[in-house]
Amino acid sequence: MLNGKRIAVVMPAYNAEKTLEITYNEIPHDVVDIVILVDDQSRDETVTLARKLGIDTIVHPKNRGYGGNQKTCYLNALTKGADVVVMLHPDYQYTPRLLAAMAAMVAYGEYDIALGSRVLLGGALKGGMPFYKFISNRFLTWAGNRMLGVQLSEYHTGYRAFTKEVLLNLPLEENSDNFVFDNQMLAQAVFFGYRIGEMSCPTKYFEEASSISFLPSVKYGIGVLRTGMQFLLQKWGLQQYPIFQREGRKLPV
Fold first, then answer.
1. Mean pLDDT of 159-184
2. Which pTM does this prediction carry?
3. Does the structure show a pLDDT above 70 at 108?
4. Maximum distance among all alpha carbons in the chain?
């Protein structure tokens, strides 16, 4: 616990057998109350290993996609009484050693959402991010900042911490089940006025680390730009979108 708040770590998993154990072992278990892994129909032994490690493991009966996996993660963390939820990818791309600091940023009420940025202090390229991905990240972040009216260093990190209020109140069920879920969630948080903080986080790119291939990356980029345009049209009162409606579908807690 931190500041009397129950801390949950959720891990959306797909073929994470080779990196799961090292990721799990570096989680600061002295401050984490709950660890949940949601497996999206992996083709390796991710589930067997997770259960061997004693992780609370949920297996989707069919592949739901990255966004669908997160919805299951957050729903189960809230059901188990979490006050702060940290998403940590089990592919060891983000260091679990910063998890306590990430959780503290929201547990002590400074922010509603905390992001582990790969870009602050040049961490992305130092960690081996492919140059074309770095350029895409920079362009999409620049575009996102212009459309949403904020100044984040990046929108595309998978290392995030949330208060339970954010997860309960955002209409997350209106979001995509695919990769653009991440961007939609941040756009919603900005639209509804939640406070977002960032901290520098080193990253590692290696063979076993998960990465979006080229065509899904293009689809993701288009989805990010579409979300930004929807944000503006909703803000200007020119169009209505379920992802930006307070009465939109929320997690069924």
1. 97
2. 0.92
3. yes
4. 53
